[in-house]
């Protein structure tokens, strides 16, 4: 009996890139000392934590205070955490269990059976050097495709959870976007296309352990090009962001969701 691996062929792809990169570096002597020095300096600054109860309370002073905190964190950090966000821990736990079950399927199943609108991706197809390679796998599903029965195959229980989860996240995204848009003096009607189901995606990520090198990252340093991202982080940790030109490690908080202001919104 042949045991199928659940992991994508990241080692094969990475070693192929490494081999090509090594040959290229040796051929072009001027590039040998031209690498960029990335300073690994992780500070213990706490990401702003905002209680969204303030947005719905009867006290106008508290509502204004909460909106001000959201606007300030968005401006100064581009990131913040929210608690009392309206999405139950029970739903978040159900989503995590379904996600683990999905990623524990064989690589052949994930990559060939049409799961979640054929949105399975792994590694970095565009990588030209080891520094560009992400050791990860993901599904990147359009929100409009989530109700589609044909997207789930043998994963029947995943559909019900994704439908509920997608709707809850969409509601939260609209709430936060409205606060930020009004803070900028804009109107929600002007931004409807950016937060409608037609332009929103739900992304499921997994970062398998890497046996090759501790220097390989799950995702390479990047900015989110979109409007707004809401992230449910597990308790393992690993998320890092840049604040004042220094890396900050984001400590997991089981009660919080992380909000990231994307390039489009900025």
TrEMBL record:
Write down the Gene3D superfamilies for this protein, in alphabetical order: B-lactam Antibiotic, Isopenicillin N Synthase, Chain
Q: Which residues form the Fe2OG dioxygenase domain?
A: 198-266
Tell me which InterPro entries the record gives: DIOX_N, IPNS-like_FE2OG_OXY, IPNS-like_sf, Iron_ascorbate_oxido_reductase, Oxoglu/Fe-dep_dioxygenase_dom
Q: Which SUPFAM superfamilies match?
A: Clavaminate synthase-like
Output the superkingdom of the source species. Eukaryota
Q: Which Pfam families match?
A: 2OG-FeII_Oxy, DIOX_N
Q: Does the keyword Iron apply?
A: yes
Q: Which UniProt keywords apply?
A: Iron, Metal-binding, Oxidoreductase
Family of this protein: Belongs to the iron/ascorbate-dependent oxidoreductase family.
**Which PANTHER family does the record associate with it?**
2-OXOGLUTARATE (2OG) AND FE(II)-DEPENDENT OXYGENASE SUPERFAMILY PROTEIN-RELATED (PTHR47990)
UniProt-recorded name of the protein: Fe2OG dioxygenase domain-containing protein
Q: Source species, please?
A: Penstemon davidsonii
């Amino acid at each position: 009996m042949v045991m199928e691996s659940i992991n994508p062929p990241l080692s094969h792809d990475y070693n192929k890139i490494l081999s090509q990169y090594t040959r290229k570096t040796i051929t072009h002597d001027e590039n040998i000392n031209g690498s960029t020095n990335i300073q690994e300096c992780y500070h213990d600054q706490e990401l702003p934590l905002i209680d969204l109860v303030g947005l719905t309370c009867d006290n106008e002073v508290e509502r204004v205070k909460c909106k001000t905190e959201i606007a300030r964190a968005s401006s100064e950090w581009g990131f913040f955490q929210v608690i009392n966000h309206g999405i139950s821990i029970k739903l978040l736990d159900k989503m995590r269990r379904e996600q683990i079950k999905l990623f524990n399927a064989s690589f052949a199943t994930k990559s060939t059976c049409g799961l979640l609108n054929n949105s399975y991706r792994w590694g970095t197809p565009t990588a030209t050097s080891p520094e560009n390679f992400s050791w990860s796998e993901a599904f990147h599903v359009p929100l409009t495709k989530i109700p589609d029965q044909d997207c789930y195959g043998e994963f029947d229980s995943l559909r019900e959870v994704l439908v509920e989860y997608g709707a809850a996240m969409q509601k939260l995204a609209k709430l936060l976007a409205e606060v930020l848009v009004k803070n900028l003096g804009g109107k929600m009607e002007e931004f409807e296309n950016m937060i409608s189901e037609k332009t929103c995606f739900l992304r499921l990520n997994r970062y398998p352990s890497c046996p090759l090198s501790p220097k390989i990252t799950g995702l390479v340093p990047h900015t989110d090009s979109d409007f707004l991202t809401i992230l449910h982080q597990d308790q393992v940790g690993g998320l890092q962001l840049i604040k004042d030109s220094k890396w900050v490690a984001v400590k997991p908080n089981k009660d919080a969701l992380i909000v990231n202001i994307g390039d489009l919104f900025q």
